[in-house]
Amino acid sequence: MTETLSRSLSIRDGRLFIEECDVAELADRFGTPLFVVSENHLVENLRDYEEAFSKHWPEGEFRVMAAIKANPNTAIRRILTREGAGCDTFGRGELELALRGGVDPHDLAVNGSIKSRDVIARAIEVGCHIILDSPIELDYCEEEAARQGKTAQMLLRVKPWLGELDMASDFFPDRTIRDMTQTVKYGIPTSEMLPMVSKAIQLEHVDLVGVHMHAGRHSKRLEFWEALVTAQVDMIDRIRTEAGGNWAPKIVSFGGGMAAIQDRETRVAVTDYESPQIEDYARVITETFRREMTSRGFDTAGMLIEVEPGRGLHNETGIHLAKVHVIKHETENIDRVWAETDTSEVFLSIGGLNVTPPFDYMIANKADAEMSEVADIAGLTCNYECLIEQTPVPHLEPGDVLTFLNTGSYIEPYTCNFNMLPRPGMVLVSGDRAEWIKRPETLDEVFARDVVPQHLEGIGGPPVGSPRSGKEKYD
Ligand SMILES: Cc1ncc(COP(=O)(O)O)c(C=O)c1O
Fold first, then answer.
1. Residue 248 has pLDDT above 60, yes or no
2. Are residues 135 and 264 in the same domain?
3. CA–centroid distance, residue 371 to ligand 1 (Å)
4. For residue 126, what is the domain's CATH number?
5. In this predicted structure, what is the pLDDT of residue 264?
6. Whether residue 377 is found in the same domain as residue 396
7. Is residue 58 situated within a structural domain?
8. pLDDT on residue 462
9. 67 within ligand 1 shell (Cβ under 6 A)
10. DSSP string covering 236-257, please?
């Protein structure tokens, strides 16, 4: 008997499957803890964005600039490249990853606050767009483009003012989105941005091709998106005025921040109301943009619009597997069962004591067993590591495979080496095929950056790296 749970997950005869792979068998074959991603789920999510926005934006072009930070991995990026997606990057590392992932520089943008001269020079060299975050970056663009004999293609990252919107942020429920989008550091302060426009149009080696904003996942409500896009068009209008009245953007980016459909997000405090469909986002964003631009006398024909989904694209494509190793049972003074697993809060981007489960979870090899018992699910490090407190479970035994769902975005990139733990690897599933796309870290790699100064050499233990040689001595 098969029960379908999502685009990639199903329960077949009591066992959890991702695409055509038995999840507990993956845990045995690749070891745990482990991240697993579904290729076909990712591709179908991307199609949703492309189809919805292309349908609602017939007068121009549309491009998904997938936010690479959500799952920064070469193979994942190559899938998105093969499927025609553009790429949003932050800083030098993500830019290089995108290039390794085969992204055509024309479909690539470099975002990021405090961009160094180096990253701007590299962006100009490869020919991708640069999203400016401060006035100094305009100078870098002009100087570096002049040096290379090129023209820098730039978008301004604006901070739309949501004057009328009193809505609370889902990230910080006691603050308004209006405040949060202004007080956050990123984006160019409006009072600094406007003078940049008149300067930019005088410069010889830069081309101001568009306007970018990214507010983030502050709210799923469509009224928020309507207010945001309206405020962005206000900015576009002010930029036109500063530019002398004739300027219009060729590219307009609305950033990321669309909720994942299941929207079980560890980084968002409020998720307990329904997520719009991607088609709803596409309709509201494009209708608002068209209406507001037209009412200000802009011609939108041929304009390229972009979104930069991270969590909306990736969240549900990934699961995280851990094995139960030890069951502890206290019967004196209190009655408590702990299922100790080989994963950790430091691999899951959570912390402390989680009274409500941070993710939906299942036991892969007992996927339809009755949740007849209660246990604490505990993690590996010396931290408190209560991954879930007093939560329903089937009868648990060592070897059972705990599976956290919806861990495809912003989880793996935050893993760290606390307690000198090597970080988990990642496996890609496509149909019945499963392959490494990031191998697990080795213990040697955990030590690889340690350097022992000469006066501490010989104190015991194997030699470790030297400042000159990195890890070669240790190897
Ligand atoms: C510039 C930019 N674009 C897109 C994203 C992706 O946002 P989300 O994952 O909420 O879609 C981010 C996230 O930080 C971002 O900084």
1. yes
2. yes
3. 37
4. 3.20.20.10
5. 72
6. yes
7. no
8. 67
9. yes
10. HHHHHHHTTS----SEEE--S-
Residue identified by tokens 């930069």 is 308
Q: Is 187 in the pocket of ligand 1 (CB under 6 A)?
A: no
Domains in the chain: how many in total? 3
Among 243, 274, 309, give the residue marking a domain's end: 309
Claim to verify: residue 424 and residue 323 sit in the same structural domain: yes
Alpha carbon distance 185, 164 (integer Å): 21
Q: Is the CB of 87 under 6 A from ligand 1?
A: no
Band (pLDDT 50/70/90 cuts) for residue 150 is very high
Of the three residues 249, 278, 309, the one that is the final residue of a domain is: 309
Residue type (1 letter), 408: G
* 292 and 273 inside one domain: yes
Range of the domain at 474: 451-475
Residue 6 belongs to some domain of the structure: yes
**Residue 164 class from Cβ within 10 Å (0-12 exposed, 13-18 middle, 19+ buried)?**
exposed
Closest approach atom of ligand 1 to CA 88: 3
Out of 14-18, 52-56, 273-277, 411-415, least confident range: 273-277
Contact 450, 464 (CB under 8 A): yes
In a domain, 184, yes or no: yes
Q: Is 290 contained in some domain?
A: yes
Question: What's at 343, amino acid-wise?
Answer: T
Domain of residue 378, CATH code: 2.40.37.10
Render the burial of 445-468: b for 16+ CB within 10 Å, e for the rest: eeeeeeebeeeeeeeeeeebbbee
Task: Phi first, then psi: give them for residue 226, nearest 5 degrees.
Answer: -65, -45
The one-letter amino acid code at 375 reads A
Give me ligand 1 centre to Cα 91, in Å. 13
Separation of CA 256 and ligand 1 centre (Å)? 4
Residue 475: is its pLDDT beyond 60?
no
- For residue range 51-77, list pLDDT tens digits in order: 999 999 999 999 999 999 999 999 999
Q: Determine the residue type at 307.
A: V
Please indicate whether residue 214, judged by its CB atom, sits closer than 6 Å to ligand 1: yes
| pLDDT given at position 351 | 87
Indicate whether 285 and 178 sit together in one domain: yes
If you take atom 12 of ligand 1, which residue's CA is the nearest one?
Answer: 256
Cα separation, 116 vs 120, in Å, equals 7
Based on the fold, state whether residues 117 and 257 are members of the same structural domain.
Answer: yes
Which two three-digit tokens encode residue 384? Answer: 């408190």
**Are 202 and 245 members of one domain?**
yes
Q: Quick one: average pLDDT of 205-225? A: 96
CA distance 257 to 190: 21
d(CA 233, CA 224): 14
Q: How far apart are CA 72 and CA 170, in angstroms?
A: 25
Q: How far is the CA of 106 from the centre of ligand 1 (A)?
A: 20
- 353 and 434, same structural domain? yes
Q: How far is the CA of 258 from the centre of ligand 1 (A)?
A: 9
Strand ranges in 346-466 using DSSP code E only, listed in sequence order: 361-363, 373-378, 386-393, 401-404, 425-430, 433-438
